[in-house]
């Protein structure tokens, strides 16, 4: 399942609900998950908040493509991808990626692959609202590049 | 050619161009209809729309929701998008 959501979400609640509702009890031996959370600091500057923009239509299509690619490479029972858009505050969860499989190798590797591909290719953009700068014009700053995860 | 025929001709020859993030701010708009008469590739469209702007950053392209290359062909009715490197997750 892939969800793009505007409101704050609780990843632990989403994980528990999805796992219960997918009805695969007894089949999976592994669930690997990653949760990305907004920090209150970036590149040495204090950050008050953030706006996450996306490309409606292409974002969903690209995430679906990533998940299908993972399913071809690993034996997966289920996957869950949730990504937040809109206005965020520090400590808000931004992204949840989870994969369920029979053995841990598939869940670990697939969730990592989905997350890294999402970070490098899925059309989302972050704009930070900084608290430390004195200049109003510099208060909002686009994040120019994601750090490499490998 | 009547007014409505002229409008229909314009639409038949046009693409929808979208801009995101810093490019949207730089161009001051999120989308436009563009007549592609004489424009064959994504790069042709980009050169046309970015003319006169100081675009110093890397720009990515997509056509109909798929990543495209500079030499990818554009056709009337396509949705072409230009955006900076992605920063989600």
UniProtKB/TrEMBL annotation, chain A:
Which pathway does the database say it acts in?
A: Cofactor biosynthesis; molybdopterin biosynthesis
Alphabetized, the UniProt keywords read: Molybdenum cofactor biosynthesis
**Entry coiled-coil feature ranges:** none
Question: What EC designation does it have?
Answer: 2.8.1.12
Q: Name one GO molecular function term.
A: molybdopterin synthase activity
- In Pfam terms, one family for this protein is MoaE
Q: GO terms for biological process?
A: Mo-molybdopterin cofactor biosynthetic process
Instruction: Name the Gene3D superfamilies for this protein.
Output: Molybdopterin biosynthesis MoaE subunit
Judged by the first EC level, this protein's enzyme class is transferase
Assembly, per entry: Heterotetramer of 2 MoaD subunits and 2 MoaE subunits. Also stable as homodimer. The enzyme changes between these two forms during catalysis.
- Family under the similarity heading: Belongs to the MoaE family.
Q: What is this protein called?
A: Molybdopterin synthase catalytic subunit
Species name? Cycloclasticus pugetii
UniProtKB/TrEMBL annotation, chain B:
Gene3D superfamilies linked to this entry? 3.10.20.30
Name the Gene Ontology molecular function terms of this record.
Answer: nucleotide binding
Keywords from UniProt, A to Z, are:
Molybdenum cofactor biosynthesis, Nucleotide-binding
Does Transferase show up as a keyword for this record?
A: no
Annotated GO biological process:
Mo-molybdopterin cofactor biosynthetic process
Record PANTHER family: MOLYBDOPTERIN SYNTHASE SULFUR CARRIER SUBUNIT
Q: Which family does it belong to?
A: Belongs to the MoaD family.
- What is the protein named? Molybdopterin synthase sulfur carrier subunit
Can you name the source organism?
Cycloclasticus zancles 78-ME
